[in-house]
Amino acid sequence: MNRAATINRWFGRGWLSLGYLFLYLPIATLVLFSFNDSPVPNVWRSFTLKWYAALASDGEMLAGLWLSLKIAVLTACTSVVLGTFAAFALVKYKRFGGRTLFSGMVSAPLVMPEVIVGLSLLLMLVSMQHWLGFPERGLLTIWLGHLLLGLAYATVIVQARLHDLNPQLEEAAMDLGARPWQVFALVTLPMIGQSLLSAWLLTFTLSLDDVVLSQFLSGPGATTMPLVIFSRARLGLNPSVNAVATLIILLVSIGVIAASYLIARHERTRARDMAAAARA
Amino acid sequence: MSAVRSNRALGKFAVIGVPYVWLLIFFLLPFLIIVKISVSEMGAVSVNDLITYKDGVLSLSPRLGNYATVVRDELYFDTYLSSLKYAAVTTVLCLVIGYPFAYFMARARATVQPALLMLVMLPFWTSFLLRVYAWKGLLTEHGWLFDLITASGLDRPLAAANLIPAPGQLMNTPFSLVLGMTYMYLPFMILPLYSNLSKMDLRLLEAASDLGATAWVAFWKITVPLSKAGIIAGSMLVFIPCVGEYVVPELLGGPQTQMIGRTLWDEFFSNNDWPIASTVAVVMILLIIVPLALFNKYQAEATEARS
Fold first, then answer.
1. B 191-210 residues with CB below 8 A of A?
2. Nearest CA to CA, how far is B160 from chain A (Å)?
3. Residues 7-66 of B with CB under 8 A from A
């Protein structure tokens, strides 16, 4: 190993370490100070669990959490279904009227500033309510906004997986007499299953976390958990926010690590089966 | 046979039609509505209608007054300018930190790469809002990062560069704003760059080295040009949402760092001025339309190129 390569290797390790420190130190500090018993929220004094105990009787936060969970489950399920439709449309059909407009509309919410999406959707819903008398602002309207965001992310994830599929498998099933819906249910669906799971989890967390769209689209009495957190965080440091943050980070980390472990195991099994099939 | 074919046509129609119609109604139509409202004016309690039908005469009365206000008023103009500036600075910082990061990730041993990738994804999955809030604790007085920066005297050069108003004041400054946005958007830069760099054909670098190029020359002449798509994707994923960012400037920015997302929010929620809020949004769309088109073009190419 020559000297330049050694320097390069150590520089690489150093850069990665600093990068991860930058990504994780704020999160670690946030978690640490959720156990802090001190009149100044960001000066460590002694260990306590009182902020967690206080959360159990924090009605505003719990009501927000319940609403957020309902919206997140609704968003994740509908995003995965509509996103799978959109991904199929983009992968299987190379030509149809207005395809460019369609692919643009699907991916634009990935980057479009949320204030624009929130404002425009709200103003449309307001005029809709004016003419039709519904929908009331609340769970339903927040879900409509989250679905736009979720649809974009779900489409990207499912689309990437569909591209990697071998179309011959579906053609073979078709030649063997399977109906299109049978091909989808028995061949395509099992192969894209894990991308559907990833899409579900990502859109679920996106919805559970969203502030801007929710603020525009929520109505009286419909305050989601991020809106509660945001209104407290605006006023300054608040240990109850640290405690909520710690619980969320814990749950999301467990969920993501467990899901990726399952996916990795699934991949390994499949690779083994394919190798066995090739040998036979 | 014809039944199968018509079934298939029906399937195609549904697969394309359902998401298409959904997006037309809930994504495109709302934009047309804010364009319409931006040329209306605010009545006593509601927005006056643009099109009126009175005494058998249909009349259309667009008011361009809102646009004149937004374009002429220095306050709006400066806010747009500073939003673009902060978004650009954030994008450059993310690229400078993120490119080497993604590069070393992609060149790490294949066995550790999934773990490295997972460690970038995790903060991306955990709450955006809570990670912004985390910086508040670090940068306000008594926070350990605050103590570290002031004790080491690093706040003096920051003040000299006009990033903070005076030594010892870190929160609600351009410094805290840009730091927070860079932190939030760094994974959006790293992920597309990593996926691009990890697919590169390393034999090209061997060929360059066989032909006498140093590692440095090979990096600039081969690796960087080949990762152009990743650089564009990452930069757009950072720049476009940063222009209209609301949460980070609200929690970490200050009066000095007005950004257009906050202006829109205030016009809507505090002033209840829907036409001006809509106008601010329409002008913002005009500012990001070129980067947006670039992003969409890249996004379509990237997925098409995979097949």
1. none
2. 24
3. 7-8, 11-12, 14-16, 18-20, 22-24, 26-31, 33-34, 37
Looking at residue B301, its pLDDT comes to 74
Query: Contact A123/B97, CB-based, under 8 Å?
Result: no
Residue B115: CB atoms within 10 A of its CB come to 9
Residue B209's CATH number? 1.10.3720.10
Three-class secondary structure assignment of A185-223: HHHHHHHHHHHHHHHHHHHHHHHHHCCHHHHHHCCCCCC
Residue B295 burial class via C-beta count within 10 angstroms: exposed 0-12, middle 13-18, buried 19 and up: buried
Shared domain check, B242 and B100 = yes
Facing residue for B292 by CB, picked from A103, A108, A120: A108
What's the domain range around B269?
65-306
- Same-domain check for residues B83 and B28: no
ipTM of predicted assembly, 2 dp: 0.88
A38: three-class secondary structure by DSSP: coil
Indicate the pTM of the whole model. 0.89
How far is residue A55's CA from residue A76's CA, in Å, rounded to a whole number? 26
Whether residues B215 and B271 fall in one domain: yes
Q: Residue B12: which of A24, A93, A120 has the nearest Cβ?
A: A93
Residue A135, preceding peptide bond in cis (omega within 30° of 0): yes
* Domain A30-279, CATH homologous superfamily name and number: MetI-like (1.10.3720.10)
- The whole-angstrom separation of Cα A84 and Cα A105 is 15
Domain count, chain B: 2
Asked if B44 and B183 sit in the same domain, the reply is no
Task: Find, in chain A, the residue whose alpha carbon is nearest to that of B296.
Answer: A104
Residues of B in Cβ contact (< 8 Å) with A8: 215
Question: What pLDDT tens digit does each residue of chain A (280 aa) get?
Answer: 577 778 888 999 999 999 999 999 999 999 999 998 887 888 888 898 889 998 888 989 999 999 999 999 999 999 999 999 999 999 888 888 888 899 889 988 988 999 999 999 999 998 888 888 778 888 999 999 999 999 999 999 999 888 888 888 888 888 888 887 888 888 888 888 888 998 999 999 999 999 999 999 998 888 999 999 999 998 888 888 999 999 988 988 888 888 888 877 877 887 788 788 777 6
Q: What is the mean pLDDT of residues B284-296?
A: 88
Decide if B281 touches A, using CB distance below 8 A. yes
Collect all residues of chain B within an 8 Å Cβ-Cβ radius of residue A120. Answer: 30-31, 33-34, 278, 281
* Residue that finishes a domain, picked among B42, B60, B78: B60
Same domain, B128 and B195: yes
